[in-house]
Amino acid sequence: MVGPPWWFLDVDGVLNAFPPPPSGATTWSYRSLRVGAQGGVFTVTVADELLAALRDVHTTGQAEVVWCTTWGSDARDSLAPLLDLPDWPVAPRPDDIRCAPLPGWSAAPWWKLEAVSRWLDREPRPYVFTDDDLVPEVVEELRARHPGLPACLLRPSTTPGLGPTELRTVHEFLTRPAG
Predict the structure, then answer these.
(1) pLDDT of 131-144, one tens digit each?
(2) What is the CATH architecture of 6-175?
(3) What are the residue boundaries of the structural domains of the chain, listed by start?
(4) CB count, 10 Å around CB of 123?
(5) Which of 26, 137, 141, 173 has a CA between 20 and 30 Å from the CA of residue 153?
């Protein structure tokens, strides 16, 4: 295992809080912007504090962030530039097997489980996976497929998305001494 941990980052419900938190419900500063993606224009609500934390994780080399989202390459090409985020790679949706759009929607595996698992098969490292659809069955399957790989698997609430509590957990995981 060479390199810092991976951080597989979802957009909707993690980076993009939806619905936006009510005014005064959090101490973070949220802003909404319109993003052209997937042939449409979408409103994205983000916390400046979360964006700063993601930039810090990237610039300090604590983790290598990978977009793992239905936004696909639009996260990198359309969303990231508007949010002043780096040009992170995108975990591709497997096209060689039938996958479900969400966990439990069918007997087919969830596409993000397959995408993350394949990424880790190619380059095993400790990893963070933050997704509002990360159900216990997926957590168990990832741990079974990658035994011995330290993992921080978090399912934030879609409102407010990834928040201070989850970021503390990620920070503790990323700064834990190896071994």
Answers:
(1) 999 999 999 999 99
(2) 3-Layer(aba) Sandwich (3.40)
(3) 6-175
(4) 11
(5) 26
